[in-house]
Amino acid sequence: VQMSLRNGVCQHTPLALMQLSTMVIQINNAASVHRIAKNALVLSEKFGTSDQKICINYYLVAGHLEPYLSGSNHLRKGFASGLSGGDSNTAFFCAGHGVYFSILSGDKDLTSLLKEIDYYLLLLETYKNELAKKFLLCYRETVATLIDRGETTGIDAKLSYADAYDLGPGNKLLEVLYFQEVFRNYWLGYTERCHHYALKSLDISKQENFFIYNMKFYHALNLLDMIKKKTNYAKTLEVVEIIESMKIVASNAETNFRN
Question: How many CB atoms lie within 10 A of CB 139?
Fold first, then answer.
């Protein structure tokens, strides 16, 4: 990036700008960093260097800023392109993020989404990407639970807490696992369990990242249910605080966070 600023842009500038954007983006600079990432994407097309690495880095930056529906569709294309190009790591990165965005956006009915996940898991028997498999198993359990609580859709293979803790404290897999617990338990109506995992998620997640605000949204809805059930009146102030923080996030990503 420094060389491009001194000497002018070249074919390597787009990827450099995109990777820089993934490292520095936070809530308080999202608009400007998003603009840099968009310009890098346009620049890559002008140089004819637009490839999967640039696209993947773009969704690392802008995944929560662009509509989740759009992101899931682009990531499915990224999966197909990565796999056909022999880059299975990129392909399954796209697959995992695409499923996550699908769960959030509801762009597919749950039965179709379950079949999609099972297709990825079947391919992973050949490609042996254990980390991708762990993420997909976590998402699969969510989808199966929402369909029929896993009674007919569940499988023996599941992501355990031991699997997540093996990667060390504060890791992304554990964050995802806690959020999926919040998400499942909210829709199942298990308010106390939802609250329990929301607190665990807050303990390990970085407050300046967009990911945590997906969890905060369901945490706030769950707190409102607890207040209605008269189990925790004291949480009213926390709900107000979450709403105020969500307004800031929504100013950067209205489609995903306005509600």
Answer: 22
Does residue 36 contact residue 15 with C-beta atoms inside 8 Å?
no
pLDDT of 168 reads 52
Residue 232 CB contacts under 8 Å (≥ 6 apart), including other chains: 223, 226
What letter would DSSP give residue 166? T
Q: Which residues contact 131 (CB under 8 A, 6 or more apart)?
A: 173
**Integer Rg of the chain from CA:** 19
What are the average pLDDT values for consecutive 10-residue runs of the chain, which has 259 residues? Answer: 67 80 77 82 74 72 80 85 85 91 92 96 93 93 94 86 64 89 95 94 79 89 87 75 83 75
Sign of the four-CA dihedral 130, 88, 141, 184: positive
DSSP state of 129: -
Please list, in sequence order, all residues whose beta carbon lies within 8 angstroms of the beta carbon of residue 1, skipping any fewer than 6 positions away.
13, 16, 17, 20
Other C-beta atoms within 10 Å of 202: how many? 14
Find out whether 212 and 64 touch, Cβ atoms under 8 Å: no
What's the pLDDT score for residue 191? Answer: 92
Q: In the chain, which residue ranges form alpha helices assigned H by DSSP?
A: 2-7, 13-24, 30-47, 52-62, 68-84, 88-105, 110-127, 130-148, 161-165, 172-188, 191-204, 211-228, 236-250, 254-257
What span, in angstroms and rounded, lies between the C-alpha atoms of 137 and 187?
19
Tokens of 220: 């706030």
> Rounded distance, CA 81 to CA 53, Å?
11
- Identify residue 114 by its one-letter amino acid code: L
Instruction: Quote the pLDDT of residue 146.
Output: 95
